[in-house]
Amino acid sequence: MTPVFTITILSNQQELQRTVSAALTPGDYRVSTLAHGESSIDELAQNPPYVLIFDHGDGGHLEEWRALGAEDQIREHSALIAILVPEQRHVLEEVPAPDEFLLWPASAVEVLLRVRAILRRRANVDSENVLRCGALLIDLANYKVVLDGRPIELTYKEYELLRFLASNRDKVFTREALLNRVWGYDYFGGARTVDVHIRRLRSKIEDRGHAFIETIRNVGYRFHEG
After folding, report:
1. Residue 60: pLDDT over 70
2. Which pTM does this prediction carry?
3. Nearest residue to 141 via CA among 126, 122, 162
4. Which one of 133, 146, 153, 172 has the lowest number of neighbouring Cβ atoms within 10 Å?
């Protein structure tokens, strides 16, 4: 099954990339690595991860960090974790503040704790890996959805669409963005595919007492806690 949260490690250190990737692999994460360079900002802006782990390395990447903070797509969609060595702590006073930071070297447990702290704040994921949206509970570990204590039967794509929207609540996504993020860039279906799945989702999780998915006219859709 497709992992739940995308995480990108931006670093030139292969050992750090391996260590952090190994720490995150056991969870519901899709981890990718990217090297510092001129194309990194463009790549991240085109497909922003849920969490970006930025390795400051020797401290020579301050301008790249500032560029990240100025890029709308990344700022809107990605939480930022900075990795520093102890003598680099002053860097935090010179660049846009990250959501979390780690002093390197760090243990696998500490990496996981920082990522989970971000998930709790941004996506309301609790210690049992359950995404809570009012009366709607999404069990990320077992791919189950419960509304007011009642199990909801969803198809795989309905679940993935709901999970993605609920993980990014209050953010507006175009139909094209949802096609790319849920179905993948190699999917050739049209925007109507999104509309059909949204309609089916609403029929299963919404009623007079619950409304979770808002249509933004001429743009797309947004999830909010119903």
Report:
1. no
2. 0.61
3. 126
4. 153
**Which residue is it, tokens 């990344």?**
74
Residue 147: the pLDDT is: 93
Helix boundaries (H) for the chain: 14-24, 40-46, 62-70, 72-77, 108-123, 156-167, 175-178, 192-205
Please, are residues 212 and 226 in contact by the beta-carbon 8 Å criterion?
yes
Q: Hey, is 158 helix, strand or coil?
A: helix
Whose CA is closest to 168, among 98, 73, 96, 95? 73
Cα(200)–Cα(89) distance, integer angstroms: 49
Mutual orientation of helices 192-205 and 156-167 as an angle, nearest 10°? Answer: 90
CA–CA dist 74, 136 (Å, integer) = 28
pLDDT at 93: 67
Name the nearest CA neighbour of 50 among 78, 74, 23, 28: 78
